[in-house]
Each structure stands twice: as structure tokens, then as C-alpha cells.
Amino acid sequence: MSQAADFESMVRALAAAERVIVVAHESPDGDALGSLVAMRLACEQLGKDVVMYLTPETGLPREYAFMDINGVLRSAPDDCETRVLIALDCANARRVGPDQSPLERAASVLNIDHHHDNSRFGDINVVVADASSTAEILADLFEQLRVELTPAIAEAVYIAIVTDTGRFQYGNTTPKTLRLAAELLEAGADAHRIFQDLYESTELGKLRLLARALDNARVLDDGRLIVASLSRDDFAKADADEPLAEGIIDYLRSVAGTDMVALIREPPLDGLLPPRKASLRTTHAGLDVSAIARQFGGGGHRQAAGFSTDEEVDDLVAALEAAYRGQLDDQAA
Ligand SMILES: [Mn+2]
Q1: How far is the CA of 169 from the centre of ligand 1 (A)?
Q2: DSSP summary character for residue 279
Q3: Which end of the chain is least crowded, N or C, by CB within 10 Å?
Q4: Residue 114 CA, ligand 1 centroid: distance in Å
Q5: 122 with 162, same domain?
Q6: Residue 292: which residues within 8 A CB-CB, separation 6 or more?
């Protein structure tokens, strides 16, 4: 099916759904949470019975605590079978969380996402790889569904876009993105207050973690590859928990002369999850860090990706360096 046909099918399916469960990915970021809230509000406006769900395994980042996700379910509801599941910003089914039962039990699965490597796990899939964010796709869907952009919906969409575009600075920022942002301000989103909530409410523990990550950074390949790590001990000494590691990798990416950066972290043990997580970023147009993440069972975008792993830090650093060099070699070949 063409992208336009997928989009038409999605609009029809969304219009027809009466009972809905809206889901975003584990370790939710601003786009996941903004899209979740925007879709919840849109469904309410359209008179649907709607619940939100996030997998219980991962904590909610405190920098988004100002967002209204009251009532979000942390376990699959008993009535999943009666609901259409809308998956937002999830590149594959695994991103919904270790518990796959919501996906398996739902009446149908609508998959709306902007990751280029989306596995198209839904019954209907709208995957727009050149959209800045999942919420940017939602804005197009809302227009077709005649959803009124209330200040609350506008704010949720704006939060998603401003975070996924690095405050409108990453390569995914298009004229369309900026026109939408202007519309959202007209609809009542308060850009300055959102900026203060997102970027001027930093906890000191996060900066302490940043200091440790920078201290631990290994500079490889003449500085073109930087791999930093945060051990459990680092988290303890910074008096910080795992969600505070969010965004630290963006400081590494800003270092002059880097092609690729990685942050390995050991979150305080939380049950069944592998003990280490790695985030990858590249500013090099020829590199695809999502391909490296896929080698370890993860995924993401060409410029930003991640995975969970059991591998020891030293082995992981060596593997990342090999993968980085391999991609450069492939390019040169
Ligand atoms: Mn996103």
C-alpha cells in the first residue's frame, strides 16, 4: 500500500474506533509522552473511551513530570480485547515493553511512527520517516479527523516536536515542522513556559552525572569516537537515578571533531532487564547508528539509536569501535 493509502486507512480506523488504548515506548521521551497525551486528548474530544498505557518496567523521566499523564495505566487493562491499540513512536513491537499482551490482545493495532526502520507491526501502519516526530504525524491526522487544536493538545504536540528536533536544530527540522510550531503557538502553546519546564528545571544530580560521564569518557580514533559510561557506582555517588541520564549523550555529541558518540549506563538493577543500556548518536551523514544498535537487538534512527545488553563495558567499547570502523570502511569501499 502507498503511504497515502495507509494514511487514509489510518484516518478511517481512528474515526471508527470507539474504545482505544494509547501506548508509547518504554523509557518514554518527549515525543512519546507528548504524542501519548495529544492522542488521548484528541480521542476524548472525539467522544471515544480512551485509556493510556506505559510498560511498568521503566520509570517516567522526571523532566516530563510537569506533563499531565494522570491516570496512565502501568499494567494491561482487563478489557484490552475490546480496544483498538494505538502505538505511538514505537519502531517495533518490543518497544511497547516486555509484556506483549496489550498488542496481542487488542482488537486491532494502529502503528503511527517516524522511525525509518519501523517493523510495520500494526494492522495499519503510518510510518513517515521524514516527519520530525511522531507528534508531527499526529497533527496531520488530527486535521483530517477535524480535531480542534486546543491549548492542551497544542502544548503536548509542541513538547514532542521541540524535544525530538533538539529545539528545532537537528536535521529533521523542516519548513513544515516550523510552520506547525507556529500553528501550535497560535493555538495556545506557551513556548517560553515549555522551555522553562523542559530546560530550566534541571536537577543537580543530572549535572553531577554529566560530570562523571565526561570524566569517564574514552576518546578513541583521534576523537572521532567518544564512548562514555555511567556505572551503578556513578549513579550512587551522584545521588541520581537512571532517568537523569537522559540527554547526557547530547553533550558528548556537541564535542568538536566527533563522528559518533555512545553512552553506556548501568541503571540500578530493575528485574528482568539486561544490566546495561547504550545510546548511540552520530553527526556523520554517512553513518547509521541504528544498524549498529540492531546488531545488539535494539534500533532507532540513523542519527540516534539504542539497545540493552549483557555485555561487559570493555567488550562493549571494543565492539562499538569495531562497528564504527566497519561502517567507515564500507563507505570507503
Ligand atoms: Mn520520536
Answers
A1: 15
A2: E
A3: C
A4: 6
A5: yes
A6: 280, 305, 320, 323, 324, 327
> How many A from CA of 24 to the centre of ligand 1?
10
**Spacing, Cα 29 to ligand 1 middle (Å):** 8
Q: Do residues 94 and 70 touch, judged by C-beta distance below 8 A? A: no
Mean pLDDT across the chain? 94
pLDDT of residue 32: 97
Residue 270: predicted pLDDT? 61
Which residues, in sequence order, are bridge partners of residue 85? 21, 109
213 and 294 fall within a common domain: yes
Residue 221 alpha carbon to ligand 1 centre in Å:
30
Residues 74, 33, single domain; the answer is yes
Torsion angles phi and psi, residue 84, rounded to 5: -85, 125
- The full DSSP string for 141-166 is HHHHTT----HHHHHHHHHHHHHHTT
Ligand 1 centroid to Cα of residue 25, in Å, is 10
Out of 164, 199, 234, pick the residue that ends a domain: 199
For residue 294, the CA-to-ligand 1 centroid distance in Å is 17
Confidence band (pLDDT; 50, 70, 90) for 272? low
Give distance in angstroms: CA of 163 to centre of ligand 1.
Answer: 9
Which CATH number fits the domain that encloses residue 155? 3.90.1640.10
Question: Could you list which residues have their CB under 5 Å from ion ligand 1?
Answer: 31, 89, 133-134, 164
**Shared domain check, 141 and 64:** yes
* Ligand 1 centroid to residue 32 C-alpha, Å: 6
301: closest CA among 103, 175, 67, 113? 113
Q: How far is CA 54 from the centre of its chain?
A: 13
Centre of ligand 1 to C-alpha 117, Å, is 12
Which of 182, 199, 216 is a domain's end point?
199
Task: State the distance from the centre of ligand 1 to the C-alpha of 118, rounded, in angstroms.
Answer: 12
- Tell me, yes or no, whether 317 and 173 share the same domain: no
Domain residue limits at 153: 3-199
